[in-house]
Amino acid sequence: MFKMSDLISWELTESLRREFEDLENYAKNQIYAFQHGENADIKLKRIGYISSEPGVIFDIENVFSFTQEEISAWTVMFKDYGASDVQVGLDSTNRTITIFVHFEGKKEDKKSNRNVVYKLLVLPSYIPTFIWAYLGLILWNPTRYQIF
Amino acid sequence: MEPNTISNILVPYTNKDLLQKLDTDSKNVVQSVVKTLNNNSVVSVNDLNSRMVCIFKQINNITFAKLKEIYLLGDKILKINVKLLNKSLVVEIKKDVYKRQVTIKHTRPNMVLIEKCTEKILKSNGIEKSDYRICYEIVKLIFKWTWGKLAANIKMEVSGGEYTFTVSNLRVVDYNQLSALDKVHDAVHSIQINFKRSLLTFKVTRTKEYINQHESKKRRTDEW
Question: Helix, strand or coil for residue B184?
Fold first, then answer.
């Protein structure tokens, strides 16, 4: 008896598998925004992985009409989540939109470090200008401007 | 039944009028394809300017031999696509005003990476040394079909003197690809598509068994 093998050129680790599940849940939570008019019954399905690069393929079924804005919205949505590239394909015969999401996992650590640096740099801007002026005067002539 | 008409059961109501408007040649080809399939399939026809796209649904399974029969119906058959996930067979019929289609290849398969990954898959499956070469060529070929697209799943089961390959999660496969698979070696046989379970299955005779079969055949012909 032999096992089933995925024909993928990258390693599917357990953490990456979990990341893909989170991505799917995220996409499923966002779909309500696109369920209107003729597209009230659209469904999102994860159909598998991309063979050449880390990423997943989603199918959006029962799509009867779409606009350029809606397609762009899907792209922006996945890119905001952390996807490196998003490709959208249309199958008019089966009323399906296919989305290729190239995703290598969320890079949260890098993002949070950048946030800390930003917060530190932005902190002095909250101090009112007259305090900076007063500190300058103290440094210039401490005996005259020192209160205590 | 008249030769130029198509059975009412096979054609959905919406397509009846459309089929009557078609030219006799195209109608004959559709009729022949329906006869070849020989089951309760439903056909829908899209009559385009350059070609006619026939979508056959409700087919349980189809063999490569049947697809070959359809392909050999004549030069009017332009493309035969098997859409496994959509459970349909798409046959494109050429019209007289047909212009050659421009195909844009988005991704070129990275053969070095494909070969490396194929070796890894075969090692993890514990393929015997004697059967390694043929299994390598088959897995490499299927990997090439799906490169940059939906990753397929492959299962290799050995029973007696042959391997049974089961390929799932394959979105689409065309006649030329199946023909290439058939041409890999004589040992590859019984190529079949199961639409119900969206599977491509085929059998590969093990190398030792294949050599034994050929030797016994040779002996028989020598005796004659």
Answer: coil
